[in-house]
Structure prediction request, 796 residues.
Amino acid sequence: MPSFLKSFLNRNQPRTRKTAAVSGTVEFLETSRLITLLIFAATTAAIVIISFVGISTANLPVLPNQIASLRIVASAPFSYPSAEKTRIASEQIRDRLPPVYRLDFELLNQFETHLRELLAALDAFERDHPDGDPATSPARKEALTDLVEAFNAKGPYQASVADVTTLFKAGSSAARAALVESGLRVLRDIYNEGIHDGRSLGPETPARVTISQIVSADGTVTRRSSESLEQALTALRINLAAEAGGRELGLPLFRIFRNGVTPNLIFDLEATRRLQENANRELKPVIVDVARGQTIIEPGLRVTPEQYEMLTAHRKFLLEHSDIALEEGLQLFGRVLLVLAMLIASVLYIRIEDRETLLSNGRIALLALVVTLNLGLVRATYALSSLPFFIENSVAASLLPYLAPVAIAPLIVAILINAGSAIFMALFISIFTSIIYGNRLDLLVLTFLASVVAIFWGTHTRNRSNVLRASIFAGITVAVFALIIGFIDRLEFLTILKHMAAGLATGVLTGVIVVGLLPVLEGLFKRTTDITLLELTDYNHPLLRLMQLEAPGTYHHSLVVAQLSENAAAEIGANPLLARVCALFHDIGKTGKPEYFAENQRDGTNPHDLSNPSLSALIIKSHVKDGVDLAIKHKLPRAVIDVIQQHHGTTLIRYFYHRAVSYTRPPAPVPGNVTPSKDPFSPALPGLGPVPVSESTYRYDGPRPRFKESVIIHLADGVEAASRSLRKVTPQHLGEIIDQIFHDRMEDGQLDEAPVTFEELAKIKTSFTFTLLNMLHGRVAYPQEIDASLPKPATL
Prediction:
């Protein structure tokens, strides 16, 4: 036998037996209502401190254009230079400053040149054709027409031969020159005033406007009135008519000179910018004075840039003046009242849905601890918002609500207790998380939904990777809703992506934290998860290996009981995995003296044949205490220890009890030829009564089964042992023996403390029958092969 297994069977050395009995102190801590009230009071104080003390609305993460969830007011008077208001003032100055325009005389100069060239051409025409009317002489008319066409070709001119002929007839060369110079002087005066076509000044510009800033030809900036193109033409016609002495000559001159009238008022962008820059240099920063109690952010409205700037200045002021006391939100009484209301609601919910938790201070302490720790982590993420980095970086501060690990406590409660309590704890944490972050309804909905998703995927999980998967699904939920909320709040897409990444990262981190905390909480609060139970089903566990080698019959018996119990537990809504694990270990105490148990007696030798019935009963009963000793030594879960103690209840060890009753004490010497038997357990002689036998000596010490899985294993243990006595397994015979066992156990009061109904017992019976019929089915006998070398029987 391997040395590591011999250590379990060292019976010669005295040892101190470990006990599974609960001490008085532990029982007091577990059941005392005083301890319950202390836990309640401590939880209330912790939540008030975490959720309200030191919470300032000034540190809430708020982004521009986001819909505010609450009102933020100034905690103290302060002043700050407002860049936003200074920018607005600068824009107002820019709007008030008129644009600068430049007068363009290039087209006028070109027209003057071309018109003087026309005069020179008329003088040459006069010299070449001294006599005759151009209108009557075809040659002179053709020459004059070529002259006019040459003039029109030099620009966008439309002078007519008739108008040029009228100018030609106006007098001598000197007279014509005088008229032209007079017209050019009038035209130059109009150009100096400025001519606009209205398009550069606006769609509905009046005919005559005052232009504040005009850069004239000499570079000076003056304020003057400018004329529209129509006004300029009218002024030109009137002045030319006056210069020509009448309409007869004035109109032809006007038709010639109007070819030189074009808009010359041009917007000067560089000059305008220089003017605005000079004005901005003289502008002083706008100082905003904020009074104590003045509203900075209004609830239900989008945060404007001015409000956000004021909030940032408020945060910086509070950071620089940390000695200022903050008096915001609810007063202490209101805060305590809110926490008490939520805790009372939690108690009522647990009383309705999970009364067992309410009766256990251990479970209540577990709930209080994980909820308080979870809210503490949420508060820790909120506290980061008061750091200078987050005050100056609004995008980073907006990530904090998505970094709060709100699903830790709900996921732990779902795994260690049940999903119902976990869902209520999720709502509890979500409400106070939204309070911490400024009564944000969107955050309440988001965190609660993410926690419920984690609970859904984490309930009844049987391996640690599933815990991480559940938390990742919760992170994905946060990311999706961060995307929706970001679009609703009109945030930048890069900011939305950062929020989504923060939600996913928090989901992964939550899974890692929960996986790390589960073993600690299991040991601290004596809770057992399906993860631990599944690990205990490994057949290489030291105790199961010991049982395989030292008590193989007991090991096989335990496997059958485990199968029976697992199937029955599934039928009545108990924990099948817990039932299986407890059944596998329920008889580990038999490894100490395996030869005293019938299933391990392979060579037909029964050591009980030479033992006193009471001693045999004591040995049989000792396997319960030995099993508890081994379970405690190997740190098996409390539920397994309880099943080891309860799987026989206080049942009677009938075989040895009846054996003891059927024997008497050794008879005294009697006269006559009768020789007394030397067998101390010989039948009673005539005339001698049976020796009184104490039934308690032959009953297990208990306690009786007290939870469903224990009841199932208690019944399965008896059914499996009894089924081995059947020579032929039929549904009728099996049903009869199962009914008999159930009836005897109920008559004996073994199920008096069991939380099972008659309906559930009926389902357990049906499950046992079905499982055993499939396990103990018969097989067809195979015919033996006839050896060909043997002689064949003779035929008759």
